[in-house]
Design brief:
With 357 residues, this protein is of the alpha/beta class. It is built from 15 helices and 13 strands. Helices cover 37% and strands 15% of the residues. The strands form 2 sheets. Strands 3-2-1-4-5-6-7 form a 7-stranded parallel beta sheet, with helices on both faces.
Length: 357
């Protein structure tokens, strides 16, 4: 069986790699990763070498399509829409494997052409998608991105190696790019948390896109503090940081739900920097951007309405990490599906069985 993974963005890899590793483990076939040239080619090349990936570089979707047509692989994975899906289906079947489980409404949108199958995290989301798109195929497999942590298949982030103190508790701050809390934090906030290690893992876009240069300036400033490690683009996966951290601070990010699914405490920042086009009479645009279950999902974390409130909540949650355990566990399956470390295995088995038919 030949699989191809379409890696339009580097941050798709943490979702793809567990499936690839399971494919190799089961000796079920081989895979090719298609990467798109951009500003981080050297970083991607180092990951390719580290993971020993069979790969191809392309400039755009047209070049990717030409390769897909030449290969006629059994399955091609996409994490988002692809403009030429109808052409792909002339010679291959397609998979949609989303890269997050956050509260944004775009999770439930489909492009004009549906993929052959979309793998989904949990029965709730599977049934909801089926009701919205009755002619498409959705399969509940769980959230494969978390398989490495559940299976203890990775080495945690080494605090000492990165000049942090292994005797301290560790905070992971993982904001999204928009709407984000980054601009709402004081310039000296790491100083208020000197008793903790702080790992800052921004979204890939915050680090790489020109339009977020104000965020980049703040991130680089915070990096200067002794108790801070700022993840750069090399650190493309949140997984090692989630495995290491004791507490997560985030905003409207998938990281909130991934961390909570691991039954660790989360603080949700309600203070966000919104563009003028999302404020006041335009606030409906922000609500439209969020899923209808946004309010219900909010119960999975304690909420900081202001930065001042956040300071107090961090100490509370670190000292009482089981405070919201019951709620986290009740939401875990709804958000991430069955957390048994076998989501990747279910995906590979489905693909193998479909090829045999």
């Amino acid at each position: 069986m030949h699989l191809i993974f379409d890696v339009l963005h580097l941050y798709y890899l943490p979702q793809y790699l567990p499936v690839y590793h399971q494919l190799i483990k089961q000796n079920a076939g081989h895979a090719t990763f298609v990467f798109y040239h951009g500003i981080h080619d050297e970083i991607i090349q180092s990951i390719i070498e580290q993971e020993q990936l069979n790969h191809l570089w392309v400039e755009n979707e047209e070049q990717a399509l030409a390769f897909y047509q030449s290969q006629a692989a059994d399955w091609i994975f996409f994490a988002n829409s692809f403009s030429y899906l109808d052409d792909v289906h002339q010679m291959s079947k397609s998979v949609q494997l989303g890269h997050g489980i956050g509260p944004k409404s775009c999770y439930y949108t489909c492009s004009g052409t549906a993929t052959t199958v979309r793998f989904v995290e949990g029965e709730y989301r599977t049934q909801r998608l089926k009701s919205m798109y009755p002619d498409a195929t959705f399969v509940n497999v769980g959230y494969c991105k978390l398989d490495p942590i559940i299976n203890n298949a990775l080495i945690d982030f080494d605090l000492e190696e990165h000049q942090l103190d292994p005797t301290k508790k560790t905070i992971l701050y993982a904001p999204t790019f928009y709407p984000s809390s980054i601009e709402c934090f004081p310039k000296d906030w790491p100083k208020a948390f000197e008793q903790y290690n702080i790992i800052i893992k921004p979204h890939y876009f915050s680090l790489s896109k020109e339009k977020y240069k104000s965020q980049q300036a703040l991130l680089l400033h915070w990096q200067q503090y002794d108790n801070v490690y700022l993840a750069d683009v090399h650190d493309y996966s949140l997984i090692p940081f989630m495995a290491t951290a004791d507490l997560l601070i985030s905003d409207a990010s998938s990281a909130l739900f991934e961390f909570a699914a691991l039954n660790k405490p989360v603080i949700w920042c309600d203070f966000l920097k919104l563009r003028w086009s999302y404020r006041g009479i335009f606030s409906y645009r922000f609500k439209k951007r969020m899923d209808q279950d946004y309010g219900e999902y909010a119960d999975i974390a304690v909420h900081a309405k202001t930065y001042t409130e956040l300071v107090t909540l961090v100490d509370e949650q670190i000292s009482s990490p089981k405070q919201l355990e019951k709620t986290r566990l009740s939401f875990a399956e709804k958000l991430a599906g069955k957390l048994d470390g076998k989501a990747s295995e279910r995906i590979v088995n489905y693909l193998v069985d479909s090829v045999k038919k």
